[in-house]
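Tip: read the tokens left to right.
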């Protein structure tokens, strides 16, 4: 089996993670020419192109395999650092900042329960990188080898990975009290949902459409959308009377309790089942991540 130069592997990872040769050079503190040379040497060793020079840059299938290998090596080094710190606390440690431990989590989990789960690990100086994507798409980051774990709606474990159920996050339809009085005095009904706008993260987000379809037994739903790409931003938009939000009940709980927001379809909640997927490797760090996220989800989500 070939032995790959760790510096060349980290160069490949930097190009993909930073989105270009110039920023990769800045991160690695080398010249752009050195980045190109390291990549060419690695491609020559593998016998295949590793980066598609498109906009944005993206790894080829071979590049994805090497990227996954690089991140697994980072994980092994992070485990070694933890073990050395336990044996010799005075040993200077800490994974290098450019050797980030990356996971993908949906924005609503970040806004509600997931951040607290990661607190202790971050205090241990873990250089964590959280990549945000829709819960229906976070597994693609894991599939491509760009993260070591993800929170997703996918039930089946990916090849080479293990899966742990986390629980369900209920979503409810809410609006500001003034918006509801003006536009939806009877709440949401099958006859008026087309008269108002709904908030979505982006064009991939179908949460509002799924909620309305399930609430009223419809197969296809066309909604008017306003796009606000953050959970906190959507709550502010709802409070300002921009539109209806289909948001986690956890996020809306306080506003519903104080009456500043109202639930537009009482008794109708859309439970989204979440799962933690990660590489199936023996790793204390992965085990710690899994335990932390599972415990936090048990406290916050519906079994």
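Filled-in amino acids:
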């Amino acid at each position: 089996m070939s032995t790959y130069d760790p510096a060349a592997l980290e160069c490949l990872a930097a190009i993909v993670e930073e989105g270009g040769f110039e920023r990769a050079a800045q991160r690695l503190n080398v010249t752009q020419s050195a980045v190109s040379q390291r990549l060419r040497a690695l491609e020559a060793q593998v016998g295949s192109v590793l980066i598609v020079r498109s906009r944005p840059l993206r790894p080829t299938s071979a590049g994805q395999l090497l990227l996954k290998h690089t991140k697994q090596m980072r994980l092994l080094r992070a485990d070694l650092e933890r073990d050395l710190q336990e044996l010799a606390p005075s040993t200077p440690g800490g994974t290098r900042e450019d050797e980030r431990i990356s996971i993908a989590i949906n924005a609503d989990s970040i806004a509600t329960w997931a951040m607290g789960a990661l607190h202790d690990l971050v205090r241990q100086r873990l250089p964590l990188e959280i990549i945000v994507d829709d819960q229906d798409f976070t597994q693609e980051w894991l599939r491509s080898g760009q993260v070591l774990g993800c929170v997703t709606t996918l039930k089946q474990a990916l090849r080479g990975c293990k899966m742990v159920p986390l629980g369900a996050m209920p979503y409810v339809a809410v609006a500001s009290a003034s918006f509801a009085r003006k536009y939806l005095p009877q709440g949401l009904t099958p006859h008026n949902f087309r008269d108002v706008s709904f908030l979505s993260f982006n064009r991939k987000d179908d949460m509002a459409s799924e909620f309305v379809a399930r609430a009223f037994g419809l197969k296809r739903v066309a909604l008017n959308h306003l796009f606000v790409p953050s959970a906190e931003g959507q709550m502010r938009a709802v409070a300002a009377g921009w539109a209806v939000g289909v948001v986690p009940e956890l996020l809306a709980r306080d506003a519903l309790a104080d009456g500043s927001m109202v639930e537009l379809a009482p008794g109708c909640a859309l439970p989204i089942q979440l799962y933690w997927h990660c590489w199936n490797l023996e790793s204390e760090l992965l085990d710690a991540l899994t335990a932390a996220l599972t415990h936090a989800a048990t406290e916050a989500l519906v079994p």
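The two ends are 45 Å apart (CA to CA). The chain has a mean pLDDT of 90.
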